[in-house]
Amino acid sequence: MKVEVKKVDALKREMKFEISREKVTEAMDHVYSEIGKHAKVKGFRPGKVPRHILASSHGQLAKDETIKKIIPQAYHEGISQHQLNPIDLPEISEVDLKDGVLTFTATLDIRPEVVVSKYKGIDVQRKKSEVSEEEIQKTLEFFKKGRGEGQEVVIDDNFAKGMGFPSLEEFKKALKHQLESDKDRNNRMDIENQIVEELIKNAKLMVPQSLVKRQLHYRLNEALKRLKAQGLEEMRPQLEPAVEREVKIYLILEEIGKLENITITDPNDSLPSKVMELLMKEAVWIEPK
Length: 289
Fold this sequence. Notes:
The chain is α+β, with helices and mostly antiparallel strands. It is 57% helix and 14% strand. It folds into 2 domains: 2-109, Trigger factor ribosome-binding domain (Alpha-Beta Plaits); 115-286, no CATH class. The longest helix is centred in the middle third of the chain and has 35 residues, at 168-202.
């Protein structure tokens, strides 16, 4: 097997493969053997069909299966031989099986070097979760407008009973509790964002575009489900910076996980969430003003 590696840019590599006739023949013999076990050809029992008969009836299938069999094996041998560490699946192109020799090109991004200079002791400030009477009244007004349907709605005990509570006071207590829970959830997200901003500011890395492309494809598909394809292309330039940021922080958190020897044993856990948990414990919590 011949492999040529070309450095396209800092992270992208182009690998050109040439698989010898001997290797291709060996793989194709195995493929024909498997096809012959199940092929139904009139006048022959399964497993007894001559090779030249199989070639005339199943030649294209044998060729396709041989290519599918060889490419992954050759690719993994090639990246091992050249000590490349891909960060994502390769893009396979220029596949050609001619005169018994198989050639193809694999384009890939290698894993970037991630340098994290500071990730412990990050200053974070948690906002207050208390809910004011004014906020409760604003929410009650929202309920009032939403249920009015053009008629005047009085916020009283009867209104509360219609919402499933024995009195207005009990409804306001439940509403306050819900608003505090919402604030708590938003405040935790805000703290995580403070940590993320510091990590990005203090880290050095190049972002592999193959990961950005894959994540962007995922986000656009999600947007497609929500928007039914309305304005989808216009969203691409808006989403791309956010997606690149997501990929960058994922790589940073992954690197911190390695530095801290964090392992995942519970399938419900994820490495980024475990690393973020550590960073929040190690952060310097500043009292809100």
